Fold each of these.
Amino acid sequence: MSAATVARPAPFAVNWWARLGYLLAVVYCVYAVSILDISWDRLLAGLDNGARFLGAMFPPEFKRWKLLIDNLLESMQIALISSLFGVLISLPVGLCASRNLMPDWLTWPARAFIAVCRSFHPVIFAILFVKAVGFGPLAGILTLIFASIGFVAKLFAEAIEEISLKPVEAARAAGAPFLSVLTFAVLPQVLNRFIGFSTYQVDSNLRNSTMIGIVGAGGIGGTLAAAFQRFDYSFVCAILLAIIALIMVSEYVAVRVKGVFQ
Amino acid sequence: MSAARIWQRFTPAERMARFVVFLVAGILIAWSLRTVEIIPEFLMDAPEQVADLFKRMWPVDFAYYERGVHAVLVETLHIATVGTILTLGIAIPVGIMAASNVCRVPVLNWLATFILVSSRSVNTLVWALLFVAVFGPGTLAGTVTIAVRSIGFVGKLFGEALEESASGPIEALRAAGAPWISVFLKGYWPQVSPAFWGIALFRWDINVRESSVIGLVGAGGIGMALDEALNLFHWDRVALILVCIFAVVVIAEVFVTHIRKRII
């Protein structure tokens, strides 16, 4: 019987590399926390502060609901207009960036443009546009147009790169001009996904449009930042609740719209 | 006879729904374009202003990097990384609570969904404002901001990955009498760990971007240097900081894409 013991690998072998990785992560955290001057005292003081802060936030104050609604509507306008133009610009840019349909000399500039749009956070664009076109919703619209191009054009280009080339070949073989190839062989394959990206982007623009006001680009963010600076925390709470409600509604609408186009 | 039959791709109800969507979208956009307050003079003036902006940004003040940018750049990366690690610690339990096949208590599912939705609904910059008010300006506020904001993203995707995992190994472990923790570690975890690390890396990439701007409201990192340069109209330094952010973001993205390919 004892001869039957066969050396077999443990069923759940210990992965020493993974353990080393976890250990390194812990060591790194300790090191980074010591560098970032994060201390326990400060955390505790902050928690104390936070409790007082929450106390000041509740109950939320909706007395200035007119201002709140006006600003929310402005945020919505910024989001809608920037989505429209962003998506319209993304169509040709995304098409130019797709490597299976376009020559290299066209895809590279388009890809570089998309990369620049994607790399900078919308807030940074917002700052630059506030300097360029002054305070107000116009700066916000321009900002979100660029943010939309970075996202929609990239995904659109990827969607085009994944299409089946057979209809394209068929259309070309039948002598279709380039525009017809696009409308009858390429577009039907990617339209659904494009609508998906667009609805997602409307949603994302709505979220961002509530934030870019903090640097002066219009919408509810400006009111929020002002309320913070006046320590008017009950109004801050009202604004935050309104933003969350708006975003939940928009998520619901986005799901329904996607359902219609499925 | 049958030649008269007309083929249609969608039912009338579907066509109606599509029409309504387009109509509502059109009305909303028309309303927005008509009522949004844009001052045309500002729009006309924009090209001149942009040209002026670039003129002031050139030449980029690279000499300032050593003195004023390097330290905050490293700080930004630390905020992003520590914030992401902190998120992973919180998002795993929340993700487990959110996955209805792992956690069968509806109350906990609801609680987890609430945490995830509120984390995602409030923008990073707004979270940063809140935490600067709580913890005071500095890196602590930034790290907590990044962590809290990321819970929603990581927890949601991790919960979805858990819900999609195959039930075979789990049933086998349960049948063998394994305790809950073993079922999780040996049944669920091996199935979801590639997805989990992919999500974590992806979020780290996003966090590098976000931690570079939260400094604008005082939450530490390179954003503080950017804010200072902007307020002092040092446009050549602004240009340098933007170049640095761009470089770091691109490097982070290349790094993440490379590792993701090896994991998945």
Amino acid sequence: MRHSTKTQRDTDAPAEKRPPEQVMRLDRMGSSHQTRLSFMRVLLRRLKTEGWTFDRPVWDIDARGVGVATYTATGPERTYTLVAFAHDLAPEHRSDRVIAEAWDATFTLVDGEPSQADLERLAGEVPVQEAGRISGTELVLSRANRSVRLFEHVIDALSRGTQPDLGQIEPVGYLMRTTAVYGSGKFGAADRDVWAGRPEFAGSFQPELLTVWLIRCFTLDLVEHLAASRAPETAVTLDPAIRRRIGVGNSTGLGMAPFLMNHPALIHSWIDARETALARVRAIRTATTATIARFSELVARAEVNARGWAVDHERQAEKCDGLRDDFARLRAHLRTAPLASGQPWDALYRWGETNLSLEGQEQFAALMLEPHGDLIDDLAPTMSADEAAPPPIDGTRRIAALRDHIRAVHRWAEGVDFDAPEATARLWYVSEEKLEPRLGERFEEPLDPYEQPLAPARDAMRALAALEGWDDEDTVAAFLMRHPEHRHSVRRVQLAMRLPYAEIRDNTIAADMLPIDLLRCKLSFFGATKFDPRSDRWVRITMFQGAPFPDELAESDPDDLAYPPLS
Amino acid sequence: MSWSLGETRALAIKAARGAGMPWGMAEEAGFAVRWLQANGAPGAAALARYLEWRDGGCEGVHDLCPIGLGTALMDAGRGVPEALGRVRQPLLLVPFVARCTPSGMALRWPGAQLIASEAGLVTDAPRETLLAEEAECEAARAVAQVFDGTTRVPEGEAAAIATLDHFAARTYAPATEASRAGAGAGTSDND
């Protein structure tokens, strides 16, 4: 892709993008970090540039914290409204699992401004979430649960006229965590086609993240309201600097993991944009003083972030330790090899490949992008794909080519024995209970008939085996007529030949596969931080921590808030 | 009450799979249903009727399968022949004909003429004719006509959606205590 800024003209021939065999491995995907191309940052940049305005026309919440509130976001052409229902949830019903049936708060994002009749209709549907139905005038359905400890701590402090303890806020980072954010036609919501052409939603997950950002406002308004209700005489509002350190949490499990395999063209568009950005930066011949200064400052701030990244999960705790060591190594390295001429970002990246953990390599790759918005931010709108129809299959290709394609896409799998139990120990299936995706043990449970097509490598190898005996000059069409069971695999392989980052180059059903690696990759593209695995298949994250609130957007640089301030 | 095209497509894929089609073919069934519904034609009902007819009768792809024929035409990449032979629920063949001949093709069976192209579907055939169970189909060159399309599956398709739900349910594994325990964090959320 050509780019015409001055910086780019100073570069050598563009550096090559990292190959999919390197990028699409689960351990590296599971070390992904948010970047300036992450969707929540793209959203806030656009809202600021376009001068969006915000209001809270309805606040009908009682002293127990029960009722309804609405928040509007108005841009150059349209208004969207978050409708928030606040509930009184007994602790025994508080569950982040998708099988939950009640929540502390439930939400929908309305396309436009809802009438009173709309609000009444939504009050009957939104609080029951998947058991209800929303309509084509709603874009998103979501719910959230309180972080019980922090929620109470903040109300308690504010009601006594004091500020909450930042030391308690930072490790958690949110008052409520969402446990699902549904969009794109789910549960009756408007299809992506309806709004995909709107400039404000260019890229991915923009309606969902607008919803989450407005939910953040609601959670802060709610604690201030409850503090004032508890002690009207003494209660104070939050100090803006403390308030900004409160984001929104998200708690998610296996339900999100298959997404990366079910949306191959979309995933390619995300990874390709990030890899193109990194290649552009690595191609810069000479680093300017300003970009070096910015990079150094953000490295220091990212180190603060890494030091505050507390997790219980053993593997992630080791990775966090490794990352903290990597910061020390980087500081030492930069003292002896300062960034200067000779494609300094490329040199730094290459040094990292041999000296840092995967966690560190991906962290510093993300940090290298930070000072180069003028060179890479134009990639953000390319991070989407129209997946309304399945990718076409070219049935006129010859069998010889199909064999080559399967071997090329799954070259990494040459040494994998898919007849060995450990290579196929897991399987993905959907349970009848709230239609929740789950991961089962193939050889311990009778689940084979329910297996989802989420093992691309094994299935491609099966297709390759079925091709034995076919003439090189036969067509793919003839093969698929005889073997329709391989249609899904052939489609994926042909797509991955066109879109190389569309396919994961790893075994998604291996005994030692960790679903949290899939979750981490997706959530980093959203812009999540504080990745906190609660098990191998369940994770909590923080979103929008440090970001401006609607009333601060005009006066702040949302990109400056991605890493915590230096104290 | 109405359904989005996206959720209807996802349901159609699961239903086709639940009725015994391979995943790759089920994806084509989902494409066909979405394309028809986006053009105001009863795709969900056509698939529901087709799956009910073939249920239990075959594994894989049936000889009269409109999706099997449609994908074979697309894969071969040689356009659409004039004589298409006998097809079950021929409406489901239409989206594939449109993909094969983006510039437009007329598809006929007794009582029905449809003009399909990348611009959409135009027909004045009544619903029951569109939902013909089985018919001899013919194709002829035609000029594409534009149809405005729709973004919702209307309330009137509730019975078809219920049938698709029934087939889709066959893809869901019964919940067990073991599977339930394996999915969550295993820790309290009251923290």
